[in-house]
Amino acid sequence: MSGDGRKVTVEDAVAAVRSEDVPDSAVAEAGARVWRRLAAEAGRGGSPDATGGMGGGIIEGCVQVLRLLPAYRDGALTTARALLVEDHLRECATCRAASHGSGRRLAVLPWRPTGTAPATARPRGHRRALAASLLIAAAAAVFVAQRALFGVPPGSRASVQAVSGIVQRVDADTARPLDPGAELGEGDSIRTGRGSNALLRLRDGSLLEMSDRAEVSVTARGQDTTVRLRRGSVIVEAAERRAGHLRVASDDCTVSVTGTVFSVSAGLKGSRVTVIEGQVHVAQGGREHALDAGGQLVTSPAIARTRVREEIAWSRNLDQHLALLAELGELREQLQRVATPGLRYRSRLLELVPPETVVFASLPNYGETLGEAHRLFQDRLAQSPVLREWWRQADPSGHGGPALSDVVERVQGFARHLGDEIVFAALDEGARAARPLLLAEVQRSGLREYLEGELAAAGEHEGPRVRVVDAESIGTVRSGELVVLLEEGVFAMAADGADLKHVVSRLRNGGPALAGTAFGSRIAAAYDEGAGMLFAADLERASRGLTSGRNAGRRPPEALGLEDLRHLIVERKDVGGHTLSQAVLTLAGPRRGIASWLGAPAPMGALEFVSANATAAGAFVVKSPALLLDDVLAAAPAGRSSEGLAEAEARLGLRLREDVAETLGGEVAFALDGPLLPTPSWKLIVEVYDAPRLQASIESLVRAFNDEAAGEGRPGVRLEAEQAAGQTYHALRSSDAVAPFEVHYTFAGGYLVAAASRALVMRAIQVRESGDGLPRSERFRSLIPADGRADVSGVLFQDLGPLVGGILEGAGRAGLGTKERESLAGLARRTQPSLICAYGEEDRIRVAGIGGLFDLDPRTAVLPLLLDRLSPGTQARRDP
Prior knowledge:
Elements: H1 10-19, H2 24-43, H3 62-74, H4 79-91, H5 93-99, H6 124-150, E1 158-164, E2 167-170, E3 175-177, E4 183-184, E5 189-192, E6 197-202, E7 207-210, E8 215-221, E9 224-237, E10 246-249, E11 254-257, E12 261-266, E13 271-277, E14 279-284, E15 287-292, E16 296-298, H7 308-311, H8 318-335, E17 357-364, H9 367-383, H10 385-394, H11 404-415, E18 418-427, E19 435-442, H12 447-458, E20 466-469, E21 482-487, E22 490-494, H13 497-509, H14 518-528, E23 533-538, H15 539-546, E24 565-575, E25 578-587, E26 616-621, H16 625-635, H17 642-652, H18 656-660, E27 664-672, E28 682-688, H19 691-711, E29 717-724, E30 727-734, E31 742-748, E32 751-755, H20 758-770, H21 778-781, E33 794-798, H22 801-813, H23 818-830, E34 834-840, E35 844-850
Parallel strand pairs: 9-10, 20-21
Antiparallel strand pairs: 1-4, 1-6, 2-3, 2-5, 5-8, 6-7, 7-9, 8-9, 9-12, 10-11, 11-14, 12-13, 13-16, 14-15, 17-18, 17-23, 18-19, 19-22, 21-22, 23-24, 24-25, 25-35, 26-27, 26-33, 27-28, 28-32, 29-30, 30-31, 31-32, 33-34, 34-35
Helix pairs in contact: 1-16, 2-4, 3-4, 4-5, 6-17, 8-23, 9-10, 9-11, 22-23
């Protein structure tokens, strides 16, 4: 037992030993004893012979090791000398490459020059088991990644949505007409005739409009889709995607996109790429070009540049592409002005919620807000033909669903009878499933008559029957009914009549309630500071429920520390014109397991590589990656064969803990620092303690990947290096022309700096050297919370303003009218940055900040479809 009464496990003891600070003198003395014994045994037998074969002598470096390799491969070296050779191969990428293919399993001792001792000495079998288990996981990850990136997915590649004139599927010797609804398979060619066009929907939801005399085919690899444009013109409306890319390839260029609208024309003289909305990346002649909205690229000087409107004049939806974004921006600006309910500093309902509550959520009564938002929406529809056309296609009532006005009217009519708060609770008693309970105060008479009238109007319907009862008639409720209780100014709804009986008991006689528990006290403290949207979870009770009864044998490993979780409180509220967000996770004691992965607040240097113009960035301090890896291993299923682990370690040529985790520091940052669409200009910065060893590990992984790919007849990857201005830059490139990818990286200032291109990597280094990184920018520093702390454990930052500004600039070039440009300008002005900070404290994790990063503003609830439209043009041409 520990001092705080907590049970101490074997994993706790192991972690404590690994975390213990051992005096350097003790480490050096122990290591020296082992090293002297190995050196003494290795030195027996005199000097090495001319070939370095079986002789003895001191092994001082690469020259001696390379001479000993033939004897090492033949197994002719003494055990001690073989160990020393293997140690050197672990540390030296050059010698390891020379020995590649020997079939020998490498040793586990780190190399040290003659006369020095290894820094650490751990039990060999344990370290090999730990490392090899993760190496098997790494091999599995490599296999899955290959399948995901290069596998040919099943199913069709596109479907025909509409045709006009002659549209054909072209085979080697035949041409067959295509009708709407036809499916296109891998590589099928489709061609339009003179004066004809076609509309295709790709497998990812993107729309492709073909001009006359155009020919395309579609292929897919992993999550990537490629449209091969052989001739003619196409307009592509790329869908938003969470993974993979959409590419359009002509004979002399390739366009990479996501979530944007653009056109590509391919002819005898070359190609022309024109961007309508968003941004595209064009690879042409060994160079990559980024085009914003309104931009254009031609691949030959023989091709003239044209205006955007002229380039897509053949499209049937030109005006909708250009106008819908401005209309939606104007609507959102009006919705932002709708008043929302104020903060709540007390809650009568908290006294009525049962003590066995595991989840508690409190929302303001948004009935009036919803009604006003709907009125503004209807007014805007009446004024805007473009918005009306979009709503004609998106309105649920046109697809068999309810009319929005009917839904709003019913919700608002119900909300008018209620007080300023609505509470949802999930009740859990361990053995039984969680049961819902909805509570609200009643502020207006006539609610019973209103509910009974609505239920009568609905008539018979599928699903459970709803009954409205009072305290005296609860006993008549039958199983399978939803029950609404109206009693003493309280509305309560539940699926179990017994829960409503307890509500009546607390109303009349008081008694045990959530407010009297430790969980309830945490919720009450949130009300004391003013509550807006409030969510709370009793993780301690929830974890007991998940591991009791039929789940008793499925307890999570103690190494994860999940049993220490207590409460989670998440808040969002508007104060002084700002959106405040906060989340607090509390634990039973000092953080361990997963909760300990976030490090304590500390200085950060990774963000210095991110420019002041970054769109988004995140940076975190974590505990030692090696200890973090140990937590993962301790939680993994046991019983794996040590022989199998050793084979996997030898096959991959590295040890994950020693060769990867121990080479890393505890700091990582990721940023979108440049154009976001179509291919994000990302940066990854990781603190590194041992760059040469990490680079050797990367080379080993690449070799393993390529060996497996070659065995299966698939393309591999190329790892290249080049010197520029005294800096070594590495590039990892796919050899698959159909699904290309590349990652560039270098080591600078104790960090690995990776990005989508070498130019981004070089720019990151320049930003750090100039001292003008994101942490020094005024827009970043103005958002840092004034909580008295000098450091944080993590930050998340976003500022979409530059993206909106780019859309506005492109809209001017595209010929958008004055009114639409003014609407976009208003959108750019309204877009505000936000910053969220995380703190790893002794027994809790706190996340807090100013801005809309965690914003769940319900004022746009009447337009749920708009929330998914980061590029609003994606719905403009749904129905031709």
